[in-house]
Specification:
The complex is a heterotrimer of chains A (307), B (316) and C (394). With 307 residues, chain A is mainly α. Chain A has helices spanning 3-34, 41-59, 62-83, 93-115, 142-164, 166-183, 188-210, 220-235, 240-265, 271-296, and strands spanning 131-135, 138-141. In chain A, β1 (131-135) and β2 (138-141) form a beta hairpin. The longest helix of chain A is centred in the first third of the chain and has 32 residues, at 3-34. Helix content of chain B is 74%, strand content 1%. Chain B has 13 helices and two strands. Chain B has helices at residues 2-20, 29-55, 62-78, 84-106, 112-130, 158-181, 183-193, 195-200, 205-231, 241-254, 259-279, 284-297, 305-315; strands at 141-142, 233-234. With 394 residues, chain C is α/β, with parallel strands linked by helices. Chain C is built from 13 helices and 14 strands. Chain C has helices at 9-18, 20-25, 45-61, 82-94, 107-119, 150-164, 177-189, 208-217, 229-240, 259-262, 282-295, 301-319, 327-336; strands spanning 32-37, 65-66, 69-76, 100-103, 123-126, 143-145, 168-174, 193-200, 221-224, 248-250, 270-273, 347-348, 354-365, 371-383. In chain C, strands 7, 8, 9, 10, 11, 12, 13 and 14 form an eight-stranded mixed beta sheet that branches. In chain C, strands 2-3-1-4-5-6 form a six-stranded mixed beta sheet, sandwiched between helices. The longest helix of chain C has 19 residues, at 301-319. Classes of the chains: A mainly alpha (307), B mainly alpha (316), C alpha/beta (394). Chains A and C meet through α1, β2, α8, α9 and α10 of A and α3, β8, α8, α9 and α10 of C.
């Protein structure tokens, strides 16, 4: 494998990673600050994609679709918070898991009832079509670079928000010790709602961004949800920095593993079984990595709570 | 004494109903297929409830144990071995060993990390099963005969199969209940409340949890043998993480604190799904909110329902 | 037509779960009941919708009757889960007493329900899944398919690549049984060099890693098999990566179920099929016109083959004059396949798989802005699947 190819694969991995980060960021904040396991987060990603697709079709453009989809995704998140999630904050994790699973069932089916079963398409914005020649002989799509850029910008913004603002300080404090923050007179409910809505919007944003390259279809949130959970657990629950690094790591492992593993297996096996075994192991690689990391560092790479 | 009778009244009633079901109008094949599936899943759910309620181990990879049992049936069937005397021990041992092996790593973690690491092992099992091209890979493997009992084909008979499932369910319930009541179980439960205190008394909870995890794996493996026999078909989708999730939901729906809750949860899950599925194609629009309502209002799960009703009446 | 279904009769059946004896007492009505297995849950639900709409249109064209008998259709959503499919199919057989089980999109579901259906001496008509398992030694007197043997379709593309004179082909398929079968089928007729075989996970979202490899390998053509959402992702990313100048040879990847999402990205991409919406015969023109009028989307092979399934049943039931009890006669009537297919000519081989022509097709944009596959040229004529010789059915 040439170094050029390796570089492109690495870029692909990073791009997939930032997409994962956008989903995982909301999840880790909600989990870290509110101690709330929200399985329905993947559905919010899916909702973003569907909203983006509909609004884009309605207005005839990707940008208008994006601008309209975000507030609606936020609103949906807030409605869910008020109707269901807020009644679950003081319940144990298991109850949260079961109730949010109920939300998944409902929303998956509702989206199907509204939009039908056929996959939808979102046009790629004119501005971002085509490819850039990164190196002689290797083109890279502009849109993927744009996702990478948007993801990195969001990560930077989020970092500023969490590290440099008052709300961010509260969020950080909440992740470390929520009852203490409440005792200090902060309206913890408002804070929770804010974090929740913001997380839902980020997931929706990831959904809209992914829509032009991925297929918008029922059940698209499930795969992403599981990977996002892997990300936040590897990164350390509640840690945005951890989620960011872990997301990039998972993105790289997924992408590089898929292209390198079959070649690696060829050292041990005949070509045909090597390809199949390599592909099977590549699918497991993320989970193997997670198991290994947790076996060594049970609290993840960047644990927030100490002791 | 009276409370003990009241406590065991509900599970006894449910088991008695299951025993009588073939004669209460559920004797047709499809109804018995449904009940068999419910009882088999109940068995797996009981084993999960045993480690969840007893030791606080929330596993999201329990379907893998089921899968080990089912795939043991497949692999032995492919080799021409269908005798229960061989199949069952091999399946149980395989599932239990997998549980012990992965548990040895997983139990070092706790809380959400335990959930995720069991998920990871479950996914590994899933992808392995899917790559077993010799046993159908993703397409799955059709079993052309059920496991034989001492050379006879009794399990082909639906009534016999029904009572075999019921019997194994009762056995697993009794085994788990006995274990929880024993000294072994007391250490487990104490460690679940406060790991620190148990350590202070001089017990290391790790080996206790590991053994419990292995036993649960063995029981789930047995359920896997029955599942393979019930559907006469085995596919990697049995091991998908969504199936592990289903088992977890059954336990939570039934009530985490009680083993028989898992039975109620599994029966409710399977039967309500079937029932709603016939009313409307969009049955999940109803099932989803039902689950949410169950969480919000049934604090003790289904198993706690009678007490909740009685309590409300007493207070009223 | 009476769709037994949804709120109506099935609502009653649902109540019957709790009150069984009442159901059993229901008298056997004069008519024919069809269990229609079509996935309605998850990412692949669009294919099940096509299948169901196609079959129901067939029944509608026959005035709600099959061979003169009033039809009741029992919908079965297999959820793409074998164990669920088995349970629901058994319920349909034993509770609803269906006379035929029809449909099935995916091979693994077909394999799961094969035994329960055929063991009760009920005819199983697959309108899509056509695994090799039941074409050769595993062929079954109660099983028919109106589609094809999966391997055939892939081999058509192999032949097409051979005919075009491609020397170096890059192969990419999902890592599961059907994917491996696709490679096998393609290679059975393509004799050039296979530059590389790449197997991707079934739940893959992003193909950038593989696309980079293809770009680096510079093959004469790509052969791929990516059903459903996989295909949507791949086609769009393939176009975006600027690879569209490498011919895109595919099976089940660009079809009418995925084209609404792929649109311009799929223009000019190739597929292989026994049927395409533009086929010029009277039966097909009527099918496509009425289908689009009713559903506002272009029918794909899933719908067309299910439509043929309805026509097949109609012809067979008519031939036995509505006597469904004589299984021998019914089988002979099905084997005769005395109906006009949307594919033009159609007949069954000894293994109950069709013997038919296969076409190279290409994605085109119609004047009304919708997309469809259109026939380019006939690649194989009266093709018999490679397993038929192993079948011991008379």
């Amino acid at each position: 494998m040439s170094t050029q190819l390796l570089l492109v694969q690495a870029l692909n991995g990073l791009q997939f990673g930032v997409l994962l980060f956008l989903v995982a960021a909301g999840l880790t904040l909600v989990f870290g600050v509110m101690d709330f396991i929200n399985l329905a987060h993947g559905v919010q990603y899916m909702l973003g994609a569907y909203l983006g697709a509909s609004f884009a079709a309605w207005t005839g453009g990707f940008w208008a679709g994006l601008v309209l989809a975000l507030p609606v995704a936020l609103a949906c998140g807030l409605v869910l918070e008020v109707l269901v999630f807020r009644h679950l904050y003081d319940r144990d994790h298991l109850s949260q898991v079961l109730a949010t699973f109920g939300v998944i069932l409902f929303l998956n089916q509702a989206l199907r009832a509204i939009w039908g079963t056929a996959p939808l398409q979102v046009p790629m914005p004119e501005l971002l079509t085509g490819g850039i020649t990164l190196m002689p002989g290797l083109q890279y799509p502009v849109y993927r670079l744009a996702i990478l850029g948007a993801g990195l910008a969001t990560a930077g913004l989020l970092w500023l928000l969490v590290e440099r603002t008052r709300v961010g300080a509260l969020v950080r404090a909440g992740a470390t010790n929520a009852p203490m923050v409440a005792a200090l007179g902060v309206d913890i409910r408002r804070l929770f709602m804010l974090v929740f809505g913001f997380g839902a919007m980020l997931a929706g944003f990831a959904g809209v961004m992914a829509a032009p390259i991925l297929s918008v279809e029922p059940g698209m949130g499930d795969t992403v949800l599981i990977l996002a959970f892997v990300v936040i657990v590897i990164g350390g629950i509640g840690s945005v920095r951890g989620a960011f690094l872990a997301a990039l790591l998972v993105g790289l492992i997924e992408t590089l593993g898929r292209s390198l593993m079959p070649d690696l297996m060829r050292l041990f096996l005949a070509p045909s079984p090597a390809r199949q075994a390599g592909a099977a192991i590549a699918s497991m690689l993320v989970y193997i990595a997670m198991a290994a990391i947790l076996a060594v560092r049970p609290q993840g790479l960047f644990p927030v709570r100490t002791g | 004494m009276r409370t003990r009778i009241r406590e065991s009244a509900l599970p006894l009633l449910v088991l008695a109903l299951l025993a009588a079901a073939p004669f209460l109008g559920f004797g047709e094949g499809w109804a018995m297929t449904l009940l068999a599936r419910a009882m088999i899943l109940a068995m797996a759910a009981v084993s999960l409830s045993f480690i969840l309620g007893g030791a606080g181990l929330i596993s999201l990879g329990h379907a893998a144990m089921l899968g080990f049992g089912a795939y043991a049936v497949v692999i032995l069937d492919d080799a021409g071995i269908t005798e229960a005397a061989v199949v069952v021990p091999v399946a149980v041992a395989a599932a239990a060993s997998f549980a012990l092996l992965t548990g040895a790593v997983a139990i070092r973690t706790s809380g959400v990390h335990f959930i995720m690491i069991t998920l990871a092992f479950g996914q590994m099992a899933f992808f392995t099963a899917a790559s077993l091209a010799g046993y159908g890979g993703d397409d799955g493997y059709t079993l052309y005969s059920r496991t034989s009992l001492g050379g006879t084909r009794w399990l082909e008979d639906r009534l016999v199969f029904h009572y075999a499932c019921l019997g194994l369910l009762v056995l697993s319930l009794l085994l788990c209940r006995m274990l929880l009541a024993s000294r072994f179980g007391r250490v487990l439960r104490a460690a679940k409340e406060s790991s620190l205190r148990v350590r202070a008394v001089g017990f290391d909870p790790y080996p206790y949890r590991l053994v419990a995890y292995g036993i649960a794996g063995g029981i789930a493996g047995l359920a896997g043998v029955m599942l393979a026999n019930a559907t006469e078909f085995v596919a990697p989708s049995y091991i998908a993480w969504q199936r592990s999730g289903d088992l977890l939901f059954m336990v939570i729906l039934g009530g985490v604190g009680s083993l028989h809750g898992a039975v109620l949860g599994a029966l409710a899950f399977v039967l309500v799904e079937e029932w709603l599925g016939h009313i409307t194609e969009h049955w999940r629009l109803i099932f989803g909110p039902l689950l949410i309502l169950a969480v919000l209002f049934l604090r003790g799960g289904l198993a706690g329902l009678p007490a909740q009703l009685l309590g409300a009446r007493n207070r009223g | 037509m009476m769709t037994i279904g949804r709120r109506g009769v099935l609502g009653g059946v649902a109540a019957g779960v709790l009150a069984m004896p009442a159901i059993r007492a229901r008298a056997q009505q004069q008519g024919v009941k069809i269990g229609l297995v079509a996935v309605q849950t998850g990412p692949q639900a669009a294919l099940g919708t096509q299948l169901r709409d196609g079959f129901l249109l067939g029944v509608k064209h026959l005035d709600g009757k099959l061979g003169g008998l009033a039809v009741q259709v029992v919908d079965i959503d297999d959820e793409l889960r074998p164990e669920v499919a088995v349970t629901k199919t058994r319920a349909a057989l034993e509770r609803d007493k269906v006379d035929f089980v029809v449909g099935v999109v995916f091979s693994n579901i077909l394999q799961a329900i094969m035994r329960p259906v055929t063991e009760t001496n009920t005819f199983l008509i697959s309108t899509n899944a056509g695994p090799s398992t039941f074409a050769g030694r595993g062929c079954n007197p109660f099983f028919f398919t109106t589609s094809y043997n999966n391997d055939q379709v892939h081999s058509v593309m192999g032949q097409a690549a051979q005919d075009e004179g491609y020397k170096r082909v890059f192969i990419m398929v999902p890592n599961y049984q059907a994917g491996r079968d696709a490679v096998h089928g393609f290679k059975s007729r393509f004799k050039g060099e296979v530059v590389d075989e790449v197997y991707v996970p079934l739940n893959q979202l992003d193909f950038s890693a593989e696309l980079a490899r293809i770009a680096a390998a510079k093959p004469d053509a790509l052969f791929t098999f990516m059903p459903g959402g996989l295909g949507v992702n791949l086609v769009r990313q393939y176009r975006q990566a600027g690879l569209a100048n490498i011919p895109f040879l595919s099976t089940f990847t660009v079809d009418e179920a995925t084209l609404p999402a792929q649109q311009d990205a799929a223009l000019g991409f190739f597929s292989a099929a026994p049927w395409a919406p533009n086929m010029d015969n009277e039966q097909n023109r009527r099918f496509v016109r009425d289908f689009e009028a009713a559903h506002n989307y272009v029918p794909g092979s899933y719908a067309a083959q299910a439509y043929d399934g309805a026509m097949l049943l109609d012809s067979a039931i008519r031939r036995v004059k509505g006597n469904l009890a004589d299984k021998q006669a019914l089988r002979a009537a099905l084997e005769a396949a005395d109906f006009r297919s949307v594919r033009g000519n159609f007949k069954f081989g000894t293994n109950h798989y069709p013997v038919q022509d296969f076409w190279l097709c290409k994605v085109a944009k119609r004047p009304d802005g919708k997309f469809q596959t259109e026939t380019v040229r006939k690649v194989l004529e009266n093709n018999v699947d490679p397993f038929a010789a192993e079948c011991r059915l008379r």
